[in-house]
Amino acid sequence: MRGEAESGPLELRDVSLKLNLEQLAAGRLKLVSDLQLPQVQSATPVTSLQQQMTLPQIAAADLGHYLRALLPAAERDWPQTMQRPLQLQQQLAVQSRNGPILVDADVDWRGMRSRGRRADNAVDQWLVPLTGSMTFSAAEQALIQSPLVGQVMMLRQYGLLLEDNGELQMHLQVDRGQLQVNGQLLPPDLFMLALTGNF
Question: CA within 20 to 30 Å of 57's CA: 8, 141, 163, 173, which one?
Answer without folding.
Answer: 173
